[in-house]
Amino acid sequence: MARVIGKEQAEKVFNNYAFVNSVAEAASDGARIATVQTGALLEQTKARYERRIAKSKAGYRDYTFTDSVFVIPTEREQPGYPRSFVVFSRNDAARAGERASAVHYFVQAEAGGPWLAAAASWVNGVPPTGVGAGAEPPYTGLGIKVRDKEIAAVNVEPVAGGGVLSATGAEGRKVCERYADYMSFTAPRGERESEYFVPGAHTSEVVDLRNGEDKDADGLVRHRFDYEATGADLPVVKLADGKSLVTCAFVRKEHLVGRDATFNFKKGSDTEDLLGGKRDWSVVDTRWAVTVVFEVPEQGPADVVASNSRVGQLLSAEGTLD
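Given the sequence above, the corresponding structure tokens read:
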């Protein structure tokens, strides 16, 4: 059954991405990374580079990806455009005990167009081995937290009469809007319980964290959070246990208003830097890029596999001084 891209060509796309990404990361080179990324991922990466350059921070060390597994849809699954494929790969530091796999989503917008990375995250793909990794996981510096429990194996070969993607992809993608609704509220009125999500570090505990910010400010600063799903629909990967792996990109908008009081941000923080280092704000609006990977069963609540929702990547900040 014909695929949307041949395995050998997909390998070339990914290997070129890995090389360009490595060079761009080392130099915080936004122009170079723009040749291999697109959409929400590119915006997030360029914002991270800009903050790094502003603080005169060094780029990340050279990473090479190995043990790559390619999930390439059939032309029956994606008869038109955009087309896409997914790569699961290990970090070059295949240290004893390393469990993390990077997940990259590549898209081709039109016939003959370039294949560009539209999203990236991490998952634990193998059970714990009992052997220490000896170093921090490679995603730590990106503010990503990954669920300890591993995902089931991904489906790479078409099933009889079907393909490699989830047959319930459209239904699975509804998790993006449900998460956006769940995480949109004015603190401290966020509701930690949801029929759609398993409680935990990436769901109910994030709501607790946001509600706690109101308490930390003694109720003197009203804090509103609004999540919006952004970017193109990404392919929904079929897992061996029947669940679906769904990755969603969001923009989290935060609206802060002082209640008969002004407020400030931590000295030297990215937010303060983007606001010009000024103090005594009455209103501030910020935008943050967030990526969340969900494990969605056919029935029951979804579980978050990985997320940077606790922090996110700051994209912009503007405000009104008192």
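Residues 169-321 form one domain. Try to locate this feature in the token string yourself.
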